[in-house]
Amino acid sequence: MKRAKPFTVTATSKIKGIKDRRNIRPLAEIKERIAYDPATGTFTYRLDCDAGNAGEDAVWRCRRTDNVGTPYESTRYWELVKFASDHWYDPRKLAYYFVTGVWPPIDTWVAGGEKFDYSAKTLQLVASGEFPCAPEPPSNLS
After folding, report:
1. So which domain of life are we looking at (predicted)?
2. What distance in Å separates the CA atoms of residue 62 and residue 80, rounded to the nearest whole number?
3. If I label 81, which of 31, 43, 96, 134 is the partner at 20 to 30 A Cα–Cα?
4. Are the CB atoms for 41 and 119 separated by under 8 Å?
5. What is the largest CA-CA distance in the chain?
6. Number of structural domains, the chain?
7. Residue 96 sits in which domain range?
8. Over its length of 142 residues, how does the chain's per-residue pLDDT go in tens digits?
9. What is the pLDDT of residue 96?
């Protein structure tokens, strides 16, 4: 179930911590609270917690606004997985963590297919400054 209303970031309502390498929780602890489906790339809550209810989508779409709630002209939506009220993860990095069991190394980023697609088959680990590889064309086209 996708969220109808995005999380709006203002001066008073901020995302307190996007965790990358600092304070990464053990995968077993994350799996107790969040379920990941590698085929579809969806994250859902396994149980009721301060971040959401069981079965609810764990991915929050965020947008940045000014103090009165007007979106900035250059704003774009981005998505984060909310683990707790002050603990957020990048969905592609978290999907990589679920699939491989290790957090992406320093000086790399996790590329994917379409925007907001976190399925395991589209994940690519790319060195910083490099471009991701183009997907292989299906072999039945010849």
Report:
1. Bacteria
2. 7
3. 134
4. yes
5. 57
6. 1
7. 7-141
8. 566 656 666 666 666 666 566 678 899 999 999 999 999 999 999 998 888 889 899 988 887 665 555 555 555 678 888 888 778 888 999 999 999 999 888 888 888 888 888 999 989 888 877 777 766 555 555 4
9. 92
Q: How far is CA 85 from the centre of its chain?
A: 15
Helix (H) or strand (E) holding 19: strand 18-19
Tokens of 62: 């965020």
By C-alpha distance, which of 32, 36, 31, 55 is closest to 45? Answer: 55
Residues near 21 by Cβ (< 8 Å), separated by ≥ 6? Answer: 103, 106
Give a yes or no: residue 116 inside a domain: yes
Alpha helices in 26-90 (DSSP H): 27-33
**Alpha-helical runs (H) found in 9-119:** 27-33, 91-100
pTM over 0.85: no
Q: Could you tell me the two tokens for 97?
A: 């963590």
Q: Which two tokens stand for residue 49?
A: 């917690």
Could you tell me if residue 74 is inside a domain? yes
Compute the distance between CA of residue 52 and CA of residue 8 in angstroms, rounded to an integer: 16
Whether 120 is in a domain gets the answer yes
